[in-house]
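hey so i finally got around to running the thing on that chain from the lab meeting. sorry it took forever, my laptop kept dying and i had to restart like 3 times. anyway pasting the input first so we r on the same page abt which one it is
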Amino acid sequence: MKYVVILGDGMADYPVPELDGKTPLMVAHKPNIDRLCEYGELGLVKTVPDHLNPPGSDIANMSVMGYDPDKYYTGRSPLEAVSMGIELLPEELAIRCNIVNLSGDGPYESLVMADYSSDEITTEEARELVLFINEKLGSDILKFYPGVSYRHCMVLKAPGDIKLLCTPPHDISGKPISDYLPKGYMHDELLDLMKKSYELLSNHPVNLDRIRRGLKPANSIWPWGEGRKPFLSDFSEKYGIRGAVVSAVDLIKGIGICGGLKVLEVEGATGTYKTNFEGKAKAAFDFLMNDGDFVYIHMEAPDECGHRHEVKEKILSIEYIDSRVVGPLAKMLSDAGEDFRMLVLPDHPTPLVLRTHTHDAVPYIIYDSRNKTVLNPGAKYDERFAKATGNHVAKGDKLMDRFISVNSDE
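ok and heres what got predicted. didnt touch it at all, straight out
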């Protein structure tokens, strides 16, 4: 038996005025996923407990992978640091460091969060900027490490009992930053770093070239998602199967590495809807045929569109996941004569009207290729049909147990 998780980050949504009160999942043309819906188990799962904030992809994906966030979660950035090859010491604090675009005139505190991704800056451009910042602002107690696109890491030597309060930049798109600056431990020092980065980056050649090309400059660092070195139990030991993750983002790779899963690198994987969907499906299939039994395919595109209020693009992202990943992968496995189970779900909602994440339960499907009986006649994969089933998994980390053991006869 082969097991495939299709994780469309942020796919779930609220009714959208531009869609006549429907959600992107209701509007999107997704015949392959809807077929799985008719033959599979459909319901809602609570991936982020209400008491954990913010309801981010770190907590949600850890939960979907079968790890209780109340037990294992130590912060977002440490998971990304693992993927980046950063060896964290017990006395070090990892902090996610976006390079963002701030707009406006006047003092730094009066600026506006114009774009948390700096127009989805390329990894090559961002690397040059982050290394420049490390050269100018790094020290014996603080270092900056380049990551992918706008997502980077800073590592700070800090005592174990500190409390640092930072806001994810995607939560404040279009808002003045004055009420969302760092609070707690070393907040004045962090703000000073942010101000200095703004001075340094505003006239950097990379940003001047971006401006000439009509793109937003990445003109400031933005720290958030702090945490200590993580530890996860081994996924393969827990479930008795060898597994891998496919993703463009360091967060998911880091969770996978910490859980003992193999990271499958895919050329052209970007974290947007302009990614190599086919490459992700092919990498998953090749691994399942040659190396293991479980693949976790993470696609960031719907989430990015939700944060940017890109309605058409969010629908398109869902349709791409259906037509370029779910359909082809299911066909390849069937043609190979493999029995398989497929779990389809988002990690959390990213409602277009809010442009950030919420704690709401999300729709899931557990499909088993051996089942030939229609279980949900006429059902579609969306929030409405999932709620109507009455199936509800109250604790997200239990869904993986359900997925791997459901109707199991192995």
